[in-house]
Amino acid sequence: MKAKDVARLSALRAILSATTNAAKTATPIRTDTQLVALLRKTAKANQEAVEEARAAGRQDIVDKEEAQIRILEEYAAQSGVQTVAGDELRSLVQAVVSEVAATGVDKAKQTGEAMKKLNAKGGPLDGKDVDRAEVAKLVKELTA
């Protein structure tokens, strides 16, 4: 890069490396949603590196990793992929859980059925950037 933006170059190299590695697995990155999930996963790993560097007293590494996190979040925000979180996510999950409960599905199987409906092709969360762990937590909370 001619601008000599070392942090951005490092972030781009990390993204390219992660996508290349993902291409060699059973689930290569094929959609924008998958790429945004990869960006968020990489940013989360960098956040853990920041915490470790702080504990070790390495401010230089903290600064470098935080710059990379900002760049990754910038790319994720500009991706055009809709992010679902907070109240919007809760209302979507609540609607699906109510729908599953109304069908008379056994209480023990409601969590699995709700997750299937939420994540199915054409479902409420299809093609959207969401934290799947948060979705699972909400479904378990609402079906309990």
UniProtKB/TrEMBL annotation:
- Keyword Mitochondrion among UniProt keywords: yes
A GO cellular-component term linked to this record: mitochondrion
UniProt keyword terms in alphabetical order: Mitochondrion
Compartments it resides in: Mitochondrion
Q: What is its main location?
A: mitochondrion
Q: Which GO terms describe its molecular function?
A: carbon-nitrogen ligase activity, with glutamine as amido-N-donor
Query: Entry's Gene3D superfamilies?
Result: 1.10.10.410, Uncharacterised protein YqeY/AIM41 PF09424, N-terminal domain
Which Pfam family would be a valid example here? YqeY
Q: Which domain of life is it from?
A: Eukaryota
Spell out the family assignment given in the record's similarity comment.
Answer: Belongs to the AIM41 family.
Recorded hits in PANTHER family, A to Z, give: ALTERED INHERITANCE OF MITOCHONDRIA PROTEIN 41, MITOCHONDRIAL
Spell out the protein name for this chain: Altered inheritance of mitochondria protein 41
UniProt lists the gene as AIM41
